[in-house]
Design goal:
Elements lengths: L22 E2 L15 H10 L1 E4 L5 H15 L2 H4 L4 E3 L6 E5 L1 H4 L1 H6 L3 H11 L3 E11 L7 E4 L1 H9 L6 E7 L10 E3 L6 E2 L11 H4 L10 H11 L2 E2 L7 E5 L4 E3 L8 E10 L33
Antiparallel strand pairs: 1-9, 2-11, 3-4, 4-5, 5-13, 6-12, 7-11, 7-13, 8-10, 8-12
The protein binds ligand 6CS and fe (iii) ion.
Fe (iii) ion binds next to strand 6.
Pfam families: PhyH
Organism: Kibdelosporangium persicum
Cofactor: Fe(2+)
């Protein structure tokens, strides 16, 4: 009897023991070489830095409409008990709502908007589907940040994502200042895969989405990457979007200011990069965190 593994060769081994070495990325960052909605200079910058910023995706009116949608969602008592809602440990405030594109029809439309979908397709060089969506609320005074990590490391280990052919869009619904927990990225770090030490516990997501302890790079590797690449911080008005590569090293600080930092976060994965079995976890994470519906997104008509 032959065992057929539903997994390709693991080019990015992680969740190992001992001191793993850094792995040079063997995949492109920008997967399309043809012209498209993203101009050539922006493509080149995204390829080199691993991120790019689209300053005014939404109008002020649209920002207000999505902000009101977030207020409606957080005011829905039934939603708080939903497993897709992550509650802050200390403050008991809502930290994230996952699968928000399936909960909110307004956000379901937004991700099909040509201003967003066309950019994802161009960067990934193919049709795309939503791997994960969430709204993040980093409330004022007690908003907790996210420690340094590569999203792809988790998506590879726990969701079975074969290659870093996914791109995340963080769409700001409040102004992102340097001081209210703005996302920090290490430009160029996406070209290095940082294996992490430690075996993935069963149902790891029940803890990691509040505070990640496994799948966290070593301080030595964070120090090495920071020395090599420096740190940029995404600041921008509400309505601007940060597009960042699945493997870029990023994190955010706490928010002790009165100014909340909320965003809509959508991960687009290439339909050529569909999830397999986890590369380093006992079983896949639930579909609300890592979708296994690989249906390509259909483009909404531009109104
Ligand atoms: O584990 C995940 O999929 C999520 N965790 C973080 C900290 N960033 C990526 C993603 O939303
Ligand atoms: Fe992340």
């Amino acid at each position: 009897m032959t065992l057929t593994s539903t997994r390709s060769v693991d080019r990015y081994p992680t969740r190992v023991i001992g001191e793993p070495g850094l792995i040079e990325r063997s995949d492109p960052t920008v997967w399309s070489s043809s012209p498209g909605p993203v101009d050539a200079a922006t493509l080149a910058s995204h390829d080199a830095k691993g991120y790019s910023i689209d300053q005014a995706v939404l109008s002020k009116h649209e920002v207000e409409a999505y902000w009101q949608e977030l207020v409606r969602l957080t005011g829905d008592p039934g939603l708080r008990a939903d497993e897709r809602v992550i509650i802050e440990k200390e403050s008991q405030e809502i930290r994230s709502i996952f699968e928000v594109h399936r909960i909110s029809p307004l956000i379901a439309e937004l991700i099909r908007d040509p201003r967003i979908l066309d950019r994802a397709r161009h960067l990934l060089g193919s049709e795309v589907y939503v791997h994960q969506s969430r709204v993040n609320f980093m409330p004022g005074f007690q908003g907790k940040g996210f420690y340094w990590h590569s999203d792809f490391e988790t998506w590879h280990a726990e969701d079975g994502m074969p290659a870093p052919r996914a791109v995340s869009m963080s769409l700001a619904l409040t102004d992102n200042y340097p001081f209210n927990g703005g996302l920090m990225v290490m430009p160029g770090s996406h070209r290095t895969f940082v294996p992490c030490v430690g075996e993935t516990p069963a149902d790891h997501y029940k803890e990691s989405l509040k505070e990640q302890e496994i799948g966290v790079p070593s301080r030595e590797n964070i120090t090495r990457l920071a020395a090599q690449h420096g740190i940029d911080q995404f600041t921008g008005e509400a309505g601007s979007a940060l597009w960042f590569d699945s493997n870029i090293m990023h994190g955010s600080g706490n928010n002790i200011t009165p100014f909340p930092r909320s965003n809509i976060f959508v991960v687009f994965n290439s339909v050529e990069n569909c999830l397999q079995d986890p590369f380093a976890a006992p079983r896949p994470r639930p579909p609300f965190i890592a979708s296994r519906d690989f249906t390509p997104l259909a483009r909404a008509p531009r109104v």
